[in-house]
Design brief:
The structure is a single chain. The strands form three sheets. This protein has an eight-stranded mixed sheet with strand order 5-4-3-8-11-12-2-13, with helices on both faces. A three-stranded mixed sheet has the order 1-6-7. Strands 9-10 form a two-stranded antiparallel ribbon. It has ten helices and 13 strands. It is of the alpha/beta class. It has a single domain, classed as Rossmann fold. The longest helix has 19 residues.
Length: about 350
């Protein structure tokens, strides 16, 4: 099998300069400032209108840009993915392309020809042009400073053709990552087959034929941290050209990549949006723990068993987001409580 073409992309890194008053050794040092909480908007309205309201609240218009809307197209047999009827009006208002990558596992979305059929069957061709980002080539993006497992991330090369990005996530459980939200969509979701292999094995191999063997050698915490590092590569590349939106509906303990997912036990929650993907995922996780402990028990157990919430710790440590946030309701009332219920 021929190796895909690789395009190297230089990322822009921001350096923060700290001024120190050295006029006298007696001058007290300035205390570090507390990071400002990120804003996460919330609406109970899971509809095209609710999605548009969440997007507009972010105050970062992407109209006029070449916009990529990154979703999961859903594995064949899965019916929990975000439906075209829900997302279509937003995608069309932005004149955006739906973008996705092929999978690293041997399902119905590993080969482009098979993936195209799933895309058609799930109705996405009816609302927008759909681009498989790694159909022809890969691109290499450097991971954030402080990364310990991955020096770079490998993504679908067509990702770099866009100038505006909507990272549109279906929040749910995940059999390997504990949960799937913005950070999973940014890492595994944007990763090419080589990139997915690299993340799953924490850099042990880029060879997809060796992936499953190497996964068994990879400690779970290294996989979780590798997702955070790969997500950071994508976040840093996009900069202020991206918005992040998560829909909490059809909340199975299994990912949309599972062709036979478990039936959702939790009630639908709503739509959340932020300019900070770490804060967005943290708010979604908090809302799981704030929900009925009986109906959310399976998802809580899945997240904890797979060390899912640790991705938030590592992402915050890498400096591209914060777990501290303020939840703001778009419904004209108080936002839902994020206090844990046991």
């Amino acid at each position: 099998m021929n190796q895909p073409t690789v395009i190297t992309v230089a990322a822009l890194f921001c350096a923060t300069v700290f001024a120190q008053d050295a006029t006298t050794s007696a001058t007290p040092k300035t205390k570090p400032t507390t990071p400002k909480p990120a804003t996460v908007f919330f609406t109970h309205d899971i509809s095209p209108e609710g999605l548009a309201k969440a997007y507009k609240a972010l105050g970062r218009p992407l109209e006029g840009k070449k916009v990529a809307v990154k979703i999961s197209t859903g594995e064949a047999g899965n019916d929990h993915y975000l439906k075209p009827a829900l997302i279509g009006p937003l995608v069309q208002s932005l004149k955006g392309d739906i973008v996705e990558c092929n999978t690293a596992y041997a399902g119905k979305r590993m080969k482009t020809s098979d993936h195209r059929k799933v895309i058609a069957d799930h109705g996405f061709n009816d609302i927008a042009k759909v681009v498989i980002l790694d159909e022809f080539a890969d691109a290499e993006l450097p991971t954030p400073a402080g990364s310990v497992h991955l020096k770079s991330d490998r993504v679908g090369a067509d990702f770099t053709n866009y100038t505006g990005f909507v990272i549109l996530n279906h929040f749910k459980g995940h059999q390997m990552g504990g949960f799937g939200g913005a950070l999973k969509n940014l890492s595994i979701g944007v990763g090419s087959i080589v990139g997915k292999t690299r993340i799953h094995t924490a850099g042990r191999t880029d060879d997809n034929a060796q992936m499953w063997a190497k996964i068994h050698e990879t400690p779970q915490i290294e996989f979780i941290e590798s997702m955070a590092e790969a997500a950071g590569a994508v976040v840093n590349y996009m900069g202020d050209r991206a918005v992040y939106i998560s829909v909490m509906n059809n909340i199975s303990i299994d990912c949309d990549c599972n062709g036979h997912p478990a039936k959702p036990e939790m009630a639908d929650v709503g739509i959340l949006a932020s300019l900070d993907p770490v804060a967005l995922d943290k708010a979604c996780v908090d809302l799981v723990y704030a929900s009925d402990p009986k109906t959310s028990a399976s998802l809580r157990a899945r997240m904890e068993k797979q060390l899912g919430p640790h991705i938030l710790d590592h992402a915050e440590k890498l400096g591209y987001g914060t777990k501290t946030y303020k939840l703001v309701s778009l419904d004209g009332n108080e936002p839902p409580s994020t206090k844990r219920v046991d």
